[in-house]
Inverse folding.
């Protein structure tokens, strides 16, 4: 196999869920034999097979995110360039080659025992075939590969979105736009000047150092729409809108362009040698932001940073490290916050109120000043409201849900703050607290409070009242932390055991109501 030199800057691990145009390609539910026929005794999940020595491909149940099966890819220590390849069938090629799809998205799981210890490990997208538009130049392109992406990551499930946009001339393999008079942009997608229309095969290629084995699981492979990506390329404190500090993907007309459009993907990447501040010096709009550095980014400033996509959900992702968005952050769409490894944290200190739904995925932590949103779905890890104990830190949600339902497997930590849920049930909220409280130990997932867990003596808790009960105790016109309360609301207060009227004290009025 021949692969061109690749540029890792053009791909990103993004937590953006599949948008409306997303179309499922592979979920590895069906085994095929070597003849390409469905066969329960076959060894090829969705016809994928190993390409190269030292790699094995198999169906598995680890890392499943779509259906009931995934694809296991294991590579021995000494192997480098290898692949997991499938032959396209009639239904798949049009999805990959569609002008409305510009990227391949998939979930990649690094198992708990699978932390890669070698020098590097990368994954990319490769296709094989001929590009007839380039035959005029006397060259028939046989192999074109897109950007690769690092998977030497901590254990967790990562959503990889690789835009099918080449940084290389598909004839000469030179980098940069329009080299030697040959225009090019997308391998697939709307620019047909030189795109390679895939008809034969599709492959994940994997390249790693030869000093360590690797084991990963792939699932939920989709052809998706994706806006242009922009890689932050400075190791300095700079303004967001300084074009010279960003490098954009083809087909953006100017490589050096700061991301500031709906659907744009801003990648704050691996080039830092120390913590850096990127100042939002004027209003900025992007579709997603991805942080990929062990050193911390602080996205600061007084101008508003807005997440907005033309369809689907916007995204915030931290693939490693502790990163902060201190600028005012507005969510124009439902938004997924992803922190795949348990060690990752995204801290947002000025989240604006929104009617949209926030979904938390990944094992790490999303720390926030408050959440006042149409809903919060805590599907993995922890959402933590920063300790403040003030009305400004009170969260107000339309709906609140936890992975695991009645037995939560993820957590919302209110710390010393309060919560209002306007479209929830009293039973569900009190159950989520009860599960987390666990008889006073406060050591289980659910709706929890770190200060209650740490209190000595154990006299702090999260209390609950319906809005009607609160009005009975405090009066029909009473407000809760400055918010108007409906009788159907569910109120949660960080307080003392025995504070049945939610005035923050245990006094005669409480005893008279017991």
């Amino acid at each position: 196999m021949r692969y061109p030199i690749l540029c890792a800057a053009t791909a990103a691990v993004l937590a953006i869920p599949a948008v409306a145009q997303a179309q499922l390609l592979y979920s590895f539910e069906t085994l095929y034999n070597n003849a390409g026929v469905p066969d329960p005794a076959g060894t090829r999940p969705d016809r994928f097979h190993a390409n190269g020595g030292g790699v094995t491909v198999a169906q598995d149940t680890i890392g499943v995110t779509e259906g009931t099966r995934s694809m296991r890819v294991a590579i021995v220590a000494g192997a480098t360039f290898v692949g997991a390849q499938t032959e396209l069938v009639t239904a798949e090629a049009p999805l990959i080659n569609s002008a409305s799809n510009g990227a391949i998205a998939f979930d990649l799981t690094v198992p708990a025992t699978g932390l890669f210890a070698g020098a590097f490990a990368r994954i990319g997208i490769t296709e094989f075939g001929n590009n007839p538009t380039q035959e005029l130049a006397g060259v028939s392109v046989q192999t074109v590969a897109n950007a690769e992406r690092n998977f030497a990551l901590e254990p967790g499930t990562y959503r990889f979105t690789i835009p099918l946009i080449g940084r290389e001339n598909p004839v000469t393999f030179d980098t940069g736009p329009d080299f030697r008079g040959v225009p090019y942009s997308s391998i697939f997608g709307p620019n047909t000047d030189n795109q390679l229309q895939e008809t034969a095969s599709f492959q994940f290629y994997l390249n790693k150092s030869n000093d360590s084995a690797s084991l990963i699981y792939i699932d939920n492979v989709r052809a998706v729409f994706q806006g242009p990506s922009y890689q932050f390329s400075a190791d300095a404190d700079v303004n967001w809108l300084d074009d010279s500090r960003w490098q954009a993907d083809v087909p953006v007309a100017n490589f050096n362009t700061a991301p500031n459009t709906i659907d744009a993907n801003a990648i704050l990447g691996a080039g830092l040698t120390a913590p850096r501040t990127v100042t939002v010096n004027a209003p900025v709009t992007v579709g997603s932001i991805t942080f990929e550095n062990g050193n911390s980014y602080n996205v600061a400033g007084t101008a508003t940073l807005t997440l907005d996509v033309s369809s689907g959900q916007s995204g915030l992702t931290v693939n490693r490290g502790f990163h902060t968005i201190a600028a005012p952050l507005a969510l124009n769409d439902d938004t997924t916050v992803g922190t795949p490894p348990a060690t990752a944290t995204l801290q947002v200190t000025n989240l604006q109120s929104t009617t949209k739904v926030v979904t938390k995925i990944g094992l790490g932590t999303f720390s926030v000043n408050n959440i006042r949103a149409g809903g919060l779905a805590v599907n993995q890890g922890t959402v933590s409201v920063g300790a403040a104990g003030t009305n400004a830190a009170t969260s107000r949600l339309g709906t609140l849900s936890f992975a695991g339902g009645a037995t939560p497997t993820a957590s919302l930590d209110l710390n010393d703050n309060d919560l209002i849920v306007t479209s929830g049930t009293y039973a569900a909220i009190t159950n989520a607290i009860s599960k987390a409280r666990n008889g006073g130990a406060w050591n289980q997932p659910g709706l929890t409070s770190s200060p209650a867990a740490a209190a000595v003596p154990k006299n702090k808790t999260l209390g609950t009242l319906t809005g009607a009960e609160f009005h009975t105790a405090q009066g029909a016109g009473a407000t809760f932390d400055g918010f108007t309360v409906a009788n159907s609301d569910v109120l949660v207060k960080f307080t003392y055991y025995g504070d049945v009227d939610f005035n923050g004290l245990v006094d005669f009025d409480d005893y008279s109501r017991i």
